[in-house]
Amino acid sequence: PEMWIVSAVVVASLVASVDAFHITHRAKCTKKKVCNGNLMCALVCEQGSVEVDSWAVNALNYQRTLQRNDQMVFFEMASTHNSAITEANNYGIEKYFIAALGGGMDFDEGDDVGEGVCQYLTLTDQLRMGVRHLEIDIWWDRLVDDLVVCHSPVPLFPVGEVTRQAEAAGLDLQWDPKNMSCLGTKRMFPDVLTEVKDWMMLEENKEQVVGLFFDTKFFMSNMSVTKANNDIRKVFGNMLWPVTEGTPLTHKVDELLSSNKRIFIEANREEWLHPSHGDPIVFWPTLWNNHQFGPSDLVQFPNCTISGDNSWYGKEWVRALDGTFTEAATRCAVPIVSGDYTNPDDMKFYVWTWDQQEPSSAEGCVALTPNGRWATLDCATPLPYACLTTSVESSAGYGLDWKVDLTVVGDAASVKCAAGTEFAAPHNGFANSVLVDKAYGQTIWLNAPNPLKK
């Protein structure tokens, strides 16, 4: 009886520690309880139930609309790391109990148990929040002779130590350690692709471009590449931008949308270029091949160099593999910023246009305010204008050569831009940051649509 009482107290304490995290989870959703055994449980969000930040979703959609006539090389795609390895699909649900059993650790610290879990929410909910670039970790599962989505082939965390600690505390976990790896927790490759495709096919999402990065964890034979390509074609069909058409980065966003080839796939292994049958359909190297970087590699605006390179803007994609500096990376128009454990309230850091609570007036015109954010103001207000140089030379570094004459003011309709310039608005975070500096703390008119205006 005494041992039973001790065990009951230990269990109650551990469960309370685990539940405390989930009670304060930042995503509001319909939660369900999933377990490995009788004690290792997590409360996860059901697919499609997450309450998104509507302001951030609308602002990000607005930004993508501004970029539709630009080349894809300027296109900003909010991203996540290990996107498909998510607690909502049962990956890594053991870590909260293990952390509590071991005396506690930061539950939000990334891949704590070696299973690659870096997200809370399903791919569907990540897309609903505004994410457009997803990382899919894949293995070849010899048990089923097919591609699966998971991260670690065997448990990497010392599972024996977990069992010993539990036994010392008088706990019977009744768990399966294999579930902490591909041996026990995985999804079939076509099922994951179908989840993405189902979201893209919703009527409200048919103007969205999505990118997938296959983090391929094994050597792929020609036959396995062909098998994967067949799965991809079966799911996405003509929606896929294939390798044979060249890089999408030199094409305008509208070209992808008008052709309905609005999903592209890149990977980290050259074997994807060599299927046993048919043409390759997955890009290698990745479209951001030259730079995948962390916070210490970026010199923040106005410098915006990455690992000493100041020539990447408008010429190549780069990827920030860390969400802790999303706002700084967005100010430099880094096209892919991949965060861990991304929640709805993280999406605001990808927004460089509207201020909070904006746009606020259906009758107003769009202006850049001194804090660098946009707002709708009375169109009759006398303000200077954002004028952009139209020369061919300036187009390669789009949105950087702004001319703002603070002495020339007028209402939003009486545009007064000098010869060789045009009334314009920034299309990315870097261009916006440059214009803010040129405005010298003044509010100025922008040639940008008011989404509230009928």
Low-pLDDT runs: 1-6
Report how far the terminal alpha carbons are from each other: 73 Å
Number of strands: 17
Shape: globular
Main structural class: alpha/beta
Strand order of the largest sheet: 6-5-4-7-8
Q: Which sheet architecture does the biggest sheet show?
A: 5 strands, mixed
Global mean pLDDT = 91
Order of helices and strands: HEEHEHHEEHEHEHHEEEHEEEEHEEHE
What is the helix fraction of residues, given as a range? 10-25%
Radius of gyration: 25 Å
Number of helices: 11
Percent of residues in beta strands? 15-25%
Account of the protein in words:
This protein has 454 residues and is an alpha/beta fold. Helix content is 25%, strand content 15%. The chain has a five-stranded mixed beta sheet, with helices on one face. A four-stranded parallel beta sheet has the order 3-11-10-9. Strands 13-12-17 form a three-stranded antiparallel beta sheet, with no helix packed on it.
Give a topology summary.
Blueprint: H1 2-23, E1 31-36, E2 40-45, H2 54-66, E3 77-80, H3 95-101, H4 123-129, E4 133-141, E5 146-149, H5 159-168, E6 187-188, H6 189-200, E7 210-216, H7 222-236, H8 253-258, E8 263-267, E9 292-293, E10 319-320, H9 326-331, E11 336-339, E12 365-368, E13 374-377, E14 387-389, H10 392-395, E15 402-403, E16 421-423, H11 429-439, E17 444-445
Parallel strand pairs: 3-11, 4-7, 7-8, 9-10, 10-11
Antiparallel strand pairs: 1-2, 4-5, 5-6, 12-13, 12-17, 14-15, 14-16
Helix pairs in contact: 1-3, 4-6, 6-7
